Amino acid sequence: MIPKSPKGTYKYAAAVDQGTTGTRFMIFDRQGQVVASLYEEHRQIYPQPGWVEHDAGEIWAKTRRVIGGALAESGVSAAEIAGVGITNQRETTVVWDPKTGEPLYNAVVWQDTRTRDICQQLQADGLEGTFRTKAGLPIATYFSGPKIKWLLDHVPGLRQKADRGEALFGNIDTWLIWNLTGGPDGGAHVTDVTNASRTMLMDLRTLDWDDELLDILGIPRQMLPEIRPSSDPAHYGHTLADGPLGGSVPVCGDLGDQQAALFGQTCYTPGEAKNTYGTGCFMLLNTGTEVVPSNSGLLTTVAYGLPGGTTYALEGSIAITGAAVQWLRDNLGIIKDAAETETIAQSVEDAGGIYFVPAFSGLFAPYWDMDARGVIVGLTRYVNKAHLVRATLEAICYQTRDVLEAMRADSGIELAALKVDGGATVNNFLMQLQADIVGVPVVRPTIHETTALGAAYAAGLAAGLWSGLDELRANWDVDREFTPRWDEARRAEGYRGWKKAVERTRGWAE
To answer: In the chain, N or C terminus with fewer CB closer than 10 Å?
Structure first.
């Protein structure tokens, strides 16, 4: 292991936050305050309906640029950074050549539905229970395992390469760690327990790749990365002197984006929950050290892995929330910027009788319907642009309530409050609407980018910048709390209409 700098010289922890639409590099001080931040978007590639791809090479290039730019703007040196963590869009699947470092196909994004036939065949073969029991997941296009199988089956020569050990798989975290720690020249091929738990290939109890699940999907074990803790004092590897970060900074934190947000929100006690608003919406409930199966359409997943043990969570994954706002902007052209939605939505008293269910990629939790497609129902001549914008924000909140109801059913826990994070939380009207629709206070912390913060916390813990979880808890602070204003009758009536609208989406694709 490369020795650390002299004790006391470390001031910061850093994180690469690689999301569905872009990449951010952030540096935090010991109080969890932002010292530097730089963000760049990358292209969204849609080869045909239902397919969503990214260029993994472009993502690595953007990562290099935001790291270099943030360091240059802040004046922070590599020698002052205790460790760097990675957090990433989960399930997005990359395969690459370990000798050249070149991707062997575009990254297949978590939203992509091309594996629908594979998943339907697995279900027809009666394997739903096998995956639920071992991996904690339903069979769905969402997860990495079926995506790997599709690539092996459809990319010419890939299966032969994989069998010869000439093709590596990783979610985006693995791809970035491999590149940061040397790439073809000895890069670390690793992932953490949270990302591994999103593949349909890891047994939640053994925390190892499961031979039966690999055999079902026909995936060679040698493609897969080593599974490590989310915060690892042994370090996955170190950055290179000629790399974007320079120096020899330990790469020692890794969490899927939603688990990173849970960690950054300091939800370390069973029963604490957070909701992250991004391209999709993801609510996680800490369930402690026991695996809690879901009977209500949630995912059982790993919350985080520390050297002392593993913590689990129930998760409700919603595919399209912020992406529906992007759709208003990019596909329909009725807004120029997401920030406009707050003012536009407030210009009308309600959604004019319409509901918008943005099931563009099917429905995720708690329905898991690959054949659902988006609908707008209740249209009359009265409805205008503002009503559609408001209905889009309401859809974010109603989908969150669907997940919250499932969590109540599975865990028996009544949430006292919902911690929130992610870009959309700056929209005060949306946050108030969320409190009104779920009927519990919504609490926004002072630092909204808790995903990057969680990854930095994991790295800083591993590198000794922080002493333990209590020190991280002390950093968390409230920016604003939104309390419900709707009465129960209005809340119940609105939710009844939402459930009716959801039924109209079901089983549309054939």
So the answer is: C
Question: Using CA atoms, how far apart are residues 303 and 373, in angstroms rounded to an integer?
Answer: 30
Tell me 78's DSSP state: G
Rounded CA-CA distance 143/171 in Å is 10
Report how far residue 374's alpha carbon sits from residue 356's, in angstroms, rounded to the nearest whole number.
8
CB distance 245 to 177 below 8 Å: no
Residues of the chain with pLDDT under 50: 1-7
Q: How big is the chain, counted in residues?
A: 510
Cα 317 to chain centroid, rounded: 9
Q: What is the pLDDT of residue 161?
A: 95
Is-contact 388 340, C-beta < 8 A? no
Backbone phi, psi, residue 248, to 5°:
-140, 65
pLDDT in tens, 400-430: 999 999 988 888 888 888 999 888 899 999 9
Q: How far apart are CA 118 and CA 114, in angstroms?
A: 9
Could you tell me the two tokens for 205?
Answer: 């109890």
Does the CA dihedral 258-259-261-262 come out positive or negative? positive
Give the DSSP per-residue string, 393-429.
HHHHHHHHHHHHHHHHHHH----S-EEEESGGGG-HH
